[in-house]
Amino acid sequence: MSCAHAAGIRPATFGVLRLPRNIVVGAQQRFAIADIAAELGDSVLICTDPRLAASDELQTLVTSLESRKLSVRVYGETQAELPTPGIVACVEELKGQDIDVVIGFGGGSCMDMAKVVSVLLTHGGQPSDYYGEFAVPGPVKPVIALPTTAGTGSEATAIAVVSDPALGMKMGISSPHIIPFAAVCDPELTYTCPAPLTAATGADTFVHLVESFTAITREPTRTLANERVFVGKNVLTDSLALDGIRLLGRSLATAYKDPGNTEARADMMLAALYGGIVLSNAGTAAAHAIQYPVGALTHTPHGVGVGLLLPYVVRHNFSAIEPQLAQIADALGREIKGLSVRSAAIAGVEAIDEVIATIELPATLQDLGVQEGDLGQIARLSLNSKRLIDNNPVPLDLESVTSIVNAAYAGDRTIR
Ligand SMILES: NC(=O)c1ccc[n+]([C@@H]2O[C@H](COP(=O)([O-])OP(=O)(O)OC[C@H]3O[C@@H](n4cnc5c(N)ncnc54)[C@H](O)[C@@H]3O)[C@@H](O)[C@H]2O)c1
């Protein structure tokens, strides 16, 4: 809304909260899955990837499901970043099988695989039939999401992200119908994440929380709740976003440096879940829009790309989100008492920089191997992600996205 843009974003008074029907959080809670699945049917498909398919954890999960007399099939070939041909291959393999429940066991790629496989098993067709918002025509076979990274938050979201080789980019399928029936968040499953994966997935969580908390505030029209999956700044998710930022601020660096720290892992699992809830209802913005072409070009993990971009995006948006940046500064432990809003907001930007620096992400697009000649194309392709561009707190056009991309290339961290 232009008035929101002109005056900076207002606090939200409108909210939408679409969630999994069951959310279970805590150490050992993966053992709750067998009972949840048994209530939904007799036949379970587990979508996972080759690494996790070979793990003891997968075997334990299968054994616990079988102990409830469920028939279990494992598809263990999910590929990272979810190329669409792999999804189609999985569904082909399942032809003629009755599947009642689909479990996504792994990082975002496996959970999104479970969502898209469930859509195709229920409604047929190809992944591309469902790109965009509200294209899934009705309920799908129930999905149980069991994350092993902290994380994408996919366990709680209404979106699945796929890589479409025909289009050369990532595409989203966004529909409330694909929100998992159950999200089971057991931090013990993340203990094996190596430091670079903890950093990339933790950065993803951080960007979900910050971008959703600083998203555009829309006019709450009579139709808004049903015409968008991602509604912008949201009174029902703002406090979760701040709680998630607080948890992440106290524990991401520890989880990164000390992978066996159980308290830090628990905090991060919860922060990731909150990140998923807030992104799925409020929605993310420019850092995600720009990461799509950057990821396609550099094959950078999603979290690394969005994390690298965040400091440049919040600087670009600065004048519209000063009060929110001040709240972020506070949530990240900065002393802001007595400061002007502008000074507290600057402390917020510095605190964001520090989180990203602590986990040693690359600092510029140049560090990712982007060439100066690629910048124009990155800016142009970013504008294709209209839902993300429209969710940014200040309006974005080619010129403004180009200025963010140029700053991220050159490492220009000026606050204007
Ligand atoms: N649906 C959503 O809401 C949403 C949100 C953000 C990102 N995504 C998507 O999620 C995908 C990225 O997911 P991700 O970052 O979780 O990574 P991932 O699922 O692609 O996994 C990356 C690698 O980490 C390994 N791994 C996973 N868990 C591990 C563990 N506990 N120990 C050791 N290794 C482990 C995997 O085997 C894989 O090799 C991208 O496709 C991204 O676009 C989806």
TrEMBL record:
InterPro entries: ADH_Fe/GldA, ADH_Fe_C, ADH_Fe_CS, Alcohol_dehydrogenase_Fe. SUPFAM superfamilies: Dehydroquinate synthase-like (SSF56796). Keywords: NAD, Oxidoreductase. GO terms for molecular function: alcohol dehydrogenase (NAD+) activity; metal ion binding. Residues 198-409 form the Fe-containing alcohol dehydrogenase-like C-terminal domain. It holds the Pfam family ADH_Fe_C. Residues 20-187 form the Alcohol dehydrogenase iron-type/glycerol dehydrogenase GldA domain. It comes from the Bacteria. Belongs to the iron-containing alcohol dehydrogenase family. This is Alcohol dehydrogenase.
